[in-house]
């Protein structure tokens, strides 16, 4: 488990992180989410002991991090770099050795991960010969090849195509189910909502909301409606029940005003568009995020 207790980091007069506390448990995926500049990467760098907090404490299984603990951690930073002239297998062996693992242990894991990501045929190729997406997968494998107890991922899906994104998401979920601690940082709410069990939402270095995702959504109530329709829906945002409309490629999400009558909303919609789906749902993490940040 990773625990932060009243952690603060200042750069001059700017508080990048202020009085931040949370627990990332074993066997779950903990989301560190927020807009760009909210303090997510600074928090991760403090957890990794790259920089030190000015105040507060960071604990691993109840104890302060010491140098040998880093062998238990896998880290995929947002700003990535990799030795382009190295061969894939040689690079992964080298990075795994730095974490104290034997070549036999590493080779077995490398073969498994390369097969899972359909990269086995590139095992002896140089990194510079790979596509950007393939390189991203190699960097992820480098963070897990030593079988860490704690995995820290900073924007892991950046630049991946949908198929690769799904494959990586499944791999992360499998790792969590094995009892590992996963800390997942992103500013994309849809990704966090699909993968995280718990979240802390940061804004300007402060925790705006913190806890299990399902409980957070329950607290905001079922004040949203998902509608899939055909026709011109430009009028919807002006209906009296509607607070705002978020448009997605295949549907819209309507945030309702307090006291809005969903039956009356449906009656108004069917006068002008053909409804394929009308579902009252808990508000999306995107809606919660926007409303809290605006407040």
Report on this model:
The protein has 295 residues and is an alpha/beta fold. The protein has two domains: 2-212, Rossmann fold; 220-294, Alpha-Beta Plaits, CATH 3.30.70. Helix content is 32%, strand content 30%. It has helices spanning 40-47, 88-98, 103-116, 132-144, 162-177, 189-195, 213-219, 262-270, 285-294; strands at 2-11, 14-24, 28-33, 55-60, 63-64, 73-76, 150-154, 181-186, 198-203, 206-212, 224-230, 242-247, 252-256, 274-281. The strands form three sheets. Strands 6-7-8-3-9-10 form a six-stranded mixed sheet, with helices on both faces. It has a four-stranded antiparallel sheet with strand order 2-1-4-5, with helices on one face. A four-stranded antiparallel sheet has the order 12-13-11-14, covered by helices on one side. β12 (242-247) and β13 (252-256) form a beta hairpin. The longest helix is centred in the middle third of the chain and has 16 residues, at 162-177. The radius of gyration is 22 Å and the shape is globular. 30% of the residues are buried. The model has no long low-confidence stretch (mean pLDDT 90).
